[in-house]
Amino acid sequence: MDLREELPGDAESVRDVHLRAFGGHGPVVAGLVDTLRGSVTPADGLSLVAEHDERVVGHVMFTRGLLDAPRRLVDVRVLSPLAVLPGHQGTGIGAALVRHGLRTLAARAVPVVFVEGDPAYYARLGFLPAGDHGFRKPSLRIPDAAFRAMTLPAYEPWMTGTLVYSEPFWRHDAVGLRDPAAPEDHVPRGERCPTIHAWPP
């Protein structure tokens, strides 16, 4: 298996990986990837593929987010999405992509990587509950256990605050969990839900 940065010619293969890996939710995730791809530059993101027998079988993106810290805004990275073709899942490809990405981002002096995902899976990769570091979720719809973070060597203790997702995550409604049965005036946890201000593109 070869791990490398995504190339322009990989776009259709990457889209196919997400469509097949996420099933009915695949079109949303594939659309998010297509939109996020324009923000990936050597300075502001990372898109990696896993290739097996000259076929793309896995993909992960790390894109720019902001940490609204008391001292100043901090550039951070958001791990999303991560997908592996169904026939190759459970073989360690996803973990290898994530670990390769984290090593690359550490070398680029990225201080923190956030992820919204399966707590058990990401705990095995070293991601801790983000609230333990004083980080706050960008949406109340994200379960506390699913909001994870990994601090890298460039992290400093003053870097606390609220994670702000980039605009494409809101445009594609790819943040947190939606409850189709919730009434229009539903207020989570007995609190008034704050207005979401998406970071401009």
Largest sheet: 9 strands, mixed
Order of helices and strands: EHHEEEHEHEEEEH
Helix content estimate: 10-25%
Unreliably modeled segments: 186-201
Described by the principal axes of the CA atoms, the overall outline is: globular
Radius of gyration: 17 Å
Question: What is the structural class?
Answer: alpha+beta
What portion of residues belong to β-strands? Answer: 25-35%
Kindly state the mean pLDDT as a whole number?
90
Extended strand count: 9
Question: In whole angstroms, how far apart are the ends?
Answer: 35 Å
Number of alpha- plus pi-helical segments: 5
- What is the oligomeric state here? single chain
Using brief descriptors, characterize the structure shown.
single chain, 201 residues, alpha+beta, nine-stranded mixed beta sheet, 5 helices, 9 strands, globular, disordered C terminus
